[in-house]
Amino acid sequence: MSTIRMRISPAGDVLDVKALVRHPMESGNREDKSTGEKIPANYIQVLNVEVNGEQVMQGNLSEAVSKNPYINIKVPGKKGDEVKISWTSNTGESDEASQAA
Amino acid sequence: MQTKRRVFLKGSLAASAAGLAVGAGLLSPRTVLAADWPQSAFDSEGMDNALNELFGTADVAESGDISVKAPDIAENGAVVPVTIESSIAGSDKVAIMVASNPTPLVASFDLMGANPFVSTRIRMGSTDDVTGVVHAGGKLYKAGKEVKVTIGGCGG
Fold first, then answer.
1. Over the stretch B8-66, which tens digit does the pLDDT of each residue have?
2. How far from A15 is each of A4, A23, A49, B65, B93, CA to CA, in Å?
């Protein structure tokens, strides 16, 4: 299952995009309480947003963004346009999802 | 607010199923290169250093045309909702910063057509200002909002 959930509300020539990404956003500062070992950093670094194949935003995130990042943005577009969100983490993992407005 | 969020989660379940179908067959997975992630800016300690690394200058003017929305009091520093909006013409980058965090830069958004509006949830180590920095027409503008943090959200 995709880690990305989107809700898109068209309003005139603007799409209000709310996205929720399932991700631990480990800062690398936390310790595993049972072993006392540090949990390695694992967080999303780049989050790209495209409308109809055209990039409209690049979000650069850090470990200071909360677990399961929520992002609300407003991008140009109209009903029926396809919004694509993709992310890449510092560990090289990635995911993407597309949805028509 | 809470009820809205529930509805959002419910509604997006169906959406993620559609996303899965697309991901499985129709589109080949494309690797997103993180090469242009501004590592040095995120690693910088101190606001000025981070601004210099990110924008090439730390010369930033207070602006009333930037709105920073955040709670007055955050009981849990691990989840602080922040909304930054700019009405400055030509705004093309928005950064969220917290000076007292170990590294102040929380996130930056390169707007390539998107409106200068970003809402997200961030971690704060202690009571401080959330600063929204906006790049427009080659200049930097900022506005801040103090958030009192009861329990810090950086450590474990």
1. 555 554 455 444 444 443 333 333 444 589 999 999 999 999 999 999 999 999 999 99
2. 17, 24, 12, 22, 19
Q: Tell me: domain B34-151, CATH 2.40.10.220, correct?
A: no
Task: Give A-chain residues touching B107 at CB under 8 angstroms.
Answer: 59-62, 64-65
Entry pTM:
0.83
Fold of A4-27+39-96: Immunoglobulin-like (2.60.40)
List the domain boundaries for chain A. Answer: 4-27+39-96
Q: Could you give the residue ranges of the DSSP H alpha helices within B70-113?
A: none
Across the strands, what pairs with A5?
A20
Residue-wise pLDDT tens digits, A61-100 = 999 999 999 999 999 999 999 999 999 999 999 999 999 9
Domain ranges of chain B: 1-30, 34-151
Nearest Cα of chain A lies from the Cα of B133 at a distance, in angstroms, of 14
| Spatial distance between the Cα atoms of B109 and A98, rounded to a whole number of angstroms | 20
Global ipTM: 0.93
> How far away is chain A from the Cα of B150, in angstroms, using its nearest Cα?
16
Residues 13-32 of A with CB under 8 A from B: 14, 18, 20, 27, 29-31
Query: What length does chain A have?
Result: 101
